[in-house]
Amino acid sequence: MTVIGTGYLGATHAACMAELGHTVMGVDVDKHKIASLARGEVPFFEPGLPAVLERNIAAQRLSFSTDYAEAAAFASVHFLAVGTPQKRGSYAADLSHVEDVITELVPQLRGKNTIFGKSTVPVGTAAHLQDMANELVAPGASVEIVWNPEFLREGFAVKDTISPDRIVVGHAGTTDVEAIAREIYAQPLSQGTPLLVCDLQTAELVKVAANAFLATKISFINAVSEICEIAGADVVPLAKAIGIDDRIGSKFLGAGLGFGGGCLPKDIRAFMARAGELGADQALTFLREVDAINMRRRDRCVDMAKAAFGGSLLGRRVTVLGCAFKPNSDDVRDSPALSVAGSLSLAGAAVSVYDPQGMDNAKKIFPTLDYAESARAALTEAELVILATEWQEFRDLDPAATAALVSRPYLIDGRNVLDIDAWQAGGWQVKALGRSL
Ligand code: UDX
Q: Is the pTM of this model over 0.70?
């Protein structure tokens, strides 16, 4: 098989399919990315992935190429894993990369081929790509497009790919797609992962619906946290109490700075845009509110920071712990932490940032912040500390020892993960989103 597109999703998928015993070629138009992966170097931070990559290159189950002709000759199963970013100036998804793959690959295919789409796409895309493929396919060859959405989380990408909690395959044909999927995913299926076979449109929608639900759940608790702050309640025990009801469930009820990353924000926007195109925009107008609640948390955090200095941040030394969109990731795309750090800086604060993995990426987007070499260096002489990404390193900070580093022990817990009593006992004045302390 080939995996076309070796970004976060594709590089992980290629390495993990090889780990499952398949012979895999990773393909990308980016020469630097391919050269790095071929050397066994993962160009982003993902725990466990470098070892899987190295092991499978050494076992000669995994190779890389930039050549579509080579890819077409190599396999009859092709995974499509290129990005579908938000279009500039619009909420819609940019499908140019997926379309480019079809245009480049399909004319070179011979015999019978199956393309498994993994990218997150607006509903209807797979049928459109099948129409494109039918136009482009060489005489005597055949191509069937099926949709096989990916649900991996950054930070758990290897585990989520090798033992996913479900495998969804959508197809429009009558061929043996299910048999091919069963062969590819034989190992997780033998371990009990359910396989759900459906039509193309349903498979495409499963992915965006799942992400829209997760985003909604986070914004729900963040909306409740706005009320908690005003009413003098505490969102942390509240979330615990409602989460015990297994119809609700405790996961994704973490109130705080909200969601970011390369998936949830863009996926809910593309879902709204697609609903509008389909004439059903009312069905998803609530996602606008989900987005707005999420963005308001960042503003609220900046307002809390201003209030900590009586209204003005001018010249104040603020330390922001974390700039990745979540822990165990170096991804800063739409990161709430980096957004807060940037806003504080634009409001006149002297912002010092430390993140165990995210700083190289953050420097490219926000070069004007002061990136410290360590948490200790970032904290030294701070007048306000904001916990913005809940890395374990920050959760493990000792309140008394940290108080000794700063010039004023004032803390905002933007992720509601710290032991407030311990920090208060360590001499800190503590504020948190959704909690009246
Ligand atoms: C998400 C989906 O989980 C995954 O299934 C999909 O394939 C891609 O999008 P990911 O972007 O890696 O994965 O991050 P996830 O772990 O879902 O977290 C998303 C964001 O929500 C993060 O910014 C996180 O900090 C935030 N979050 C999560 C909360 O604010 N509160 C929570 O309770 C949980």
A: yes
